[in-house]
Amino acid sequence: MIPASGSYRLAKARVHQSVTLGLAADFDNDGFALANVTVTDGKIAEIAAHGRAAVPADAIDLGGRIVLPCFVDCHTHIDKGHIWPRAPNPDGTFMGALNATGADRAARWSAEDVARRMEFSLRSAYAHGTRALRTHLDSVPPQEEISWPVFETMREAWRGRIELQGACLLGIEGVRDKKWFDALARRVAAAKGVLGVVTYMVPDLEELLDHVFAQAIEHGLDLDFHADETDDVAAISLKKIAEAALWNGFEGNILVGHCCSLARQPDLDVLDTLDKVAKAALAVVSLPMCNLYLQDRRTDHTTPRWRGVTLLHEMKARGIPVAVASDNTRDPFYAYGDLDMLEVYRMATRILHFDHPVADWPKAVAATPAKVMRLDGFGTLAAGGDADFIVFKGRSWTELLSRPESDRIVVRAGRAIDQELPDYAELDELMVE
Ligand SMILES: [Zn+2]
Predict the structure, then answer these.
(1) pLDDT tens digits, residue range 52-70?
(2) Which among 240, 253, 284, 341 could disulfide-bond with 222, CB atoms 3.0 to 4.6 Å apart, if both were Cys?
(3) Strand runs (DSSP E) across 105-186, as ranges?
(4) Angle between helices 341-352 and 111-128 (to 10 degrees)
(5) Measured in angstroms, how far is the CA atom of residue 226 from the centroid of ligand 1?
(6) How many angstroms separate the CA atoms of 155 and 9, rounded?
(7) 332 C-alpha to center of ligand 1: Å?
(8) Number of other CB atoms surrounding residue 433 within 10 Å
């Protein structure tokens, strides 16, 4: 359907107001309008409302199929991905995940092992229509010396297909060894990465956060936190991060993931935290599938009672940038997943109610994470921008989100890409004892 020439016209593409720039059209209640899109040499030359001008006879009639910009996945762990067959989570709990992953990392994460699983993940993400991806990289010694060079090689190999960003990952207790942590910060800076830690309610949390911020300021790094991935109402590190950002006068971008406990806290505490998060200009990413899997996990054969996700609606209402992302795939933190951001959006719609109205929620998998990741021109359709988009079969939200859309067409630089998914059997030899 999409000509290999990279130059053509599409007629009756159904585009969404929230992720289409500069289109004067009458958008319907679902945020959609029909548009004609001119692609020239791999770029979008023009997006015009359908029906306002004559359509050339040679235009490709999309018949109202939805066309969205390629996805931006701002929180993943492709260094952990696909270890499930050799490192399953014994009971589905967070501690089960931490322990199983830690043991597997120590025993098995050679450069080749990490590289082959990363490559597998990126091929899947690319085939599903992802254009940019941030991965956390477990950086507890000696893994940082193994995984970061692999990541840098992978980033170069994938440039032009997937824009890769890396963030270091370690429990905040690791910051107590300042000499080691400062060396890690230098390593991350040299790799043009993002400084990341997992916050826990340790007694010296504020002091450790100050040190993380000081290192980020010294090296000009953005920050990325895993915070409060628990139902424990005493977990308030999101607020502590916001306070630290304010008193350190931090000017870089800060992305905070999870924030699950916020949804369990009293309203007045929530309001105070959200005030600070907005004032400190933090962005928040929810990981709905992973949260559904790990949060409220019960080992006594009783049924989970809450969804596990944070308060995205309240955050968005305050102007806090909010995103959803894949998080883990087929590892002890989440037994499933394939880095398919349409699946993430579909699940987010169901778990987080991204509907009635849909409003501008599509930005949460496109324009908003692109901004957090400082990727100009990503996550939107715009005249003058790259022709990087996905043509779906669905013509409405209910059609789009009811089927897997395995037959979607991913277009990069104006051309349909090969969307064959890697075969699980390719990883079999990495899974033997
Ligand atoms: Zn994560």
Answers:
(1) 878 888 999 999 999 999 9
(2) 253
(3) 130-138, 163-169
(4) 70
(5) 6
(6) 33
(7) 12
(8) 3
Task: Say if CB 295 and CB 264 are below 8 A apart.
Answer: no
Contact, 292 vs 307, CB < 8 A?
A: yes
CA distance 103 to 112: 18
**What is residue 46's predicted lDDT score, i.e. its pLDDT?**
96
Q: What digits encode the pLDDT tens for the residues 314-369?
A: 999 999 999 999 999 999 999 999 999 999 999 999 999 999 999 999 999 999 99
Give me the pLDDT at residue 433, please.
75
Q: Distance between CA atoms of 251 and 281, rounded to whole angstroms?
A: 9
Residues with Cβ within 8 Å of residue 225, at least 6 apart in sequence: 196, 197, 198, 199, 237, 241, 254, 255, 256, 257
**Ligand 1 centre and the CA of 63: distance in Å?**
39
Q: List the beta strands (DSSP E) in 223-319.
A: 223-227, 254-258, 283-286
pTM over 0.90: yes
Average pLDDT, the chain: 97
DSSP assignment of 225-247: EEE--SS-TT--HHHHHHHHHHH
- 3-state SS, residue 319: coil
Per residue in 270-282, is it b (16+ CB within 10 Å) or e — as a string?
Answer: beebbebbeebbb
Q: How far, in Å, is the centroid of ligand 1 from the Cα of 286?
A: 10
| Cα 56 to middle of ligand 1, angstroms | 48
Q: Which helix (H) or strand (E) holds 416?
A: strand 415-416
Q: How far is the CA of 246 from the centre of ligand 1 (A)?
A: 24
Please check whether residue 205 is in contact with residue 237, taking contact to mean a CB–CB distance below 8 angstroms. Answer: yes
The CA distances from residue 301 to 99, 229, 290, 415, in Å, are 22, 22, 20, 50
